[in-house]
């Protein structure tokens, strides 16, 4: 294995899911729902297979899906993308992220990631020959919310900085970046002529939407950002279809053109029968998404309250599938050690937050639990966790 990939041999999600399968543990580690997405979308995919939509779709994605993606962005966020030149369908958000970095980062360029960061960012930066610069989210001592340290962001950027990767709603902390935080990032990007790559895969999974400051905003809509932002999202979380791997990237013509150049030699194309189904879902299943979002909010509360009863110190989660919890009140100090023992010991799998960090000390005590599971599964996991 080449040296630049040696730190990335096995992902924490694969490791913990394998451990859950081996021990029969309840898997609150890897974030995937245990119920299916909207019936109309599933039927569309079945019908597409039956009707012969089984060969290579066009490289940039089927036209009806690109149009549906562009319409969705315009309706929700007011951002306008030409479906022919500014929208690219990818094999999940993961491919969009990797293709973007391969296409836009020269060897030696610096890429800022906000720590804790989703694990594929570091591997994709490394594959592109880039240099990762981590900027921390810091937990507010009063509320526990993880907030962006803008001073640290300013200190981390310089002449070698090419891009910043921004993920909101944020995996693993559940933070939704506020208008002020996004405005701060935008200012840094504009002043230093930096590209923004935004990972918005949890854009629909925000729970306290009515509260000012807790609504999904896209960095691309801020002044001076449309022309320097590549927006990435995916159907996986919005429509509970994580295995379909239909994602997309939207942005200025030249950025999308560049990403397309890399993408065509990674997978060329994929997911033929799923593409019309996702196009249908973006147009007709957003009411389903709203109901799912309300259910997920209740699950967040159920798991958060249950973890608190079990003795964890529970941090607030504003969005995503995840809630983070402090294990120190239970007498443990190391979340990774605990996560390695948990499946065997009590039959529950979870993810240590330090797996998302270059500097593990700040989050050593934190464990991430996924609540995108049926209530009876959450309740059984909580029953087991109370034995800790
Ligand atoms: N970004 C984040 C923050 C994620 O949590 C995930 C996992 N779903 C992805 C990207 C990957 O998305 P996809 O499955 O569409 O490749
Ligand atoms: N995005 C999911 C998570 O954070 C899982 C992704 C994966 O297995 N690579 O748990």
From TrEMBL:
The keyword Chloroplast does not apply. Residues 25-385 form the Aminotransferase class I/classII large domain. GO terms for molecular function: kynurenine-oxoglutarate transaminase activity; pyridoxal phosphate binding; succinyldiaminopimelate transaminase activity. Keywords: Aminotransferase, Pyridoxal phosphate, Transferase. CDD domains: AAT_like (cd00609). Its cofactor is pyridoxal 5'-phosphate. Its EC number is 2.6.1.17. Pfam families: Aminotran_1_2. It comes from the Bacteria. GO terms for cellular component: cytoplasm. Belongs to the class-I pyridoxal-phosphate-dependent aminotransferase family. PANTHER family: FI04487P. This is Putative N-succinyldiaminopimelate aminotransferase DapC. The lineage of its organism: Bacteria, Bacillati, Actinomycetota, Actinomycetes, Pseudonocardiales. The gene is dapC.
């Amino acid at each position: 294995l080449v040296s630049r990939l040696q730190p990335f041999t096995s992902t924490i999600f694969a490791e913990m899911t394998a451990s859950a399968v081996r021990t029969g543990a309840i898997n609150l580690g890897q974030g995937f729902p245990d119920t299916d997405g909207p019936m109309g979308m599933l039927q569309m995919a079945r019908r597409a297979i039956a009707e012969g939509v089984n060969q290579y779709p066009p490289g940039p994605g089927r036209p009806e899906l690109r149009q549906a993606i562009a319409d969705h962005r315009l309706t929700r966020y007011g951002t306008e993308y030409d479906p022919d030149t500014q929208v690219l369908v990818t094999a999940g958000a993961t491919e969009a992220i990797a293709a973007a970095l391969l296409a836009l980062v020269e060897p030696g360029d610096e890429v800022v990631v906000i720590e804790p960061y989703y694990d594929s960012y570091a591997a994709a930066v490394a594959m592109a020959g880039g240099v990762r610069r981590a900027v921390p989210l810091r937990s507010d001592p009063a509320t526990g919310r993880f907030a962006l340290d803008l001073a640290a962001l300013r200190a981390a950027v310089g002449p070698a900085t090419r891009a910043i990767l921004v993920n909101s709603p944020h995996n693993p902390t559940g933070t939704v970046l506020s208008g002020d935080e996004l405005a701060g990032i935008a200012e840094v990007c504009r002043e230093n002529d930096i590209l923004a790559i935004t990972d918005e895969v949890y854009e629909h999974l925000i729970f306290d939407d009515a509260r000012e400051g807790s609504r999904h905003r896209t960095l691309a809509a801020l002044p001076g950002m449309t022309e320097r932002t590549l927006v990435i999202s995916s159907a996986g979380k919005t429509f509970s279809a994580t295995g379909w791997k239909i994602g997309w990237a939207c942005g200025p013509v030249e950025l999308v053109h560049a990403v397309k150049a890399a993408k065509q030699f990674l997978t060329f194309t994929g997911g033929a029968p799923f593409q019309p189904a996702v196009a249908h879902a973006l147009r007709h299943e957003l009411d389903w998404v709203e109901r799912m979002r309300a259910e997920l909010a209740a699950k967040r509360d159920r798991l958060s309250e249950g973890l608190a009863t079990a003795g964890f110190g529970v941090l607030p989660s504003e969005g995503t599938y995840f809630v983070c919890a402090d294990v120190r009140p239970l007498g443990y100090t190391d979340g990774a050690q605990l996560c390695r023992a948990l499946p065997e010991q009590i039959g529950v799998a979870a993810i240590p937050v330090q797996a998302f960090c270059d500097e593990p000390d700040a989050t050593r005590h934190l464990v991430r639990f996924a609540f995108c599971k049926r209530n009876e599964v959450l309740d059984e996991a909580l029953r087991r966790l109370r034995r800790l």
